[in-house]
Specification:
five-stranded parallel sheet, Rossmann fold, about 190 residues, alpha/beta, globular
Length: about 190
Amino acid sequence: MKELLCVTGLTGSGKSVASDFFVDKGYQYVRFGQIVLDEVKKRNLEPIEANERPIREEFRKKYGMAAMAILNLPKFKKLLEVGDVLGDGLYSFEEYKILKEEFGKQFITVAVYAPPELRYERLAKRKLTSEDTELRNRPSTKEAAESRDYAELENLNKGATIAMSDYTVLNTKDLDFFKKQLNEIFQEIQKNK
């Protein structure tokens, strides 16, 4: 059975590293929020949280709280025809419910957790490179990241998505520790196929 594995977590928790791990294992990649960044670029805006949030909210006003899942459904379905799919950045609980309803047992979620101060420290150290055309690793100030945390938890119901995840990974130590946990999850998923 082909599966849609979605990664969730707050900004700076390690979602991109987790996503890359599964892509390296053969999953096809879809980033939920790429739709927002594409719109930011289309409007010739700087890719910063202050410009991204209004667009995210605009999409959600038009399509509801499940906007990112709804907008990515055609892509997920097409890719699932040929193999497993990794969805990077599942946000709202409404998105979770849409995908659970649409894909049932094919839908698996992994929550990545790191405490706020550690995430903010990581985000401040990030450097944007020319190779990062999808802006997956853009830096953020502590203030912007904290503001985004509150917006995601209060306005997007992201806490419920994290709480309902099938697996939770702690990203509080080094990369080897993190990847070891991800590999254990991968092995369990493969065993249950």
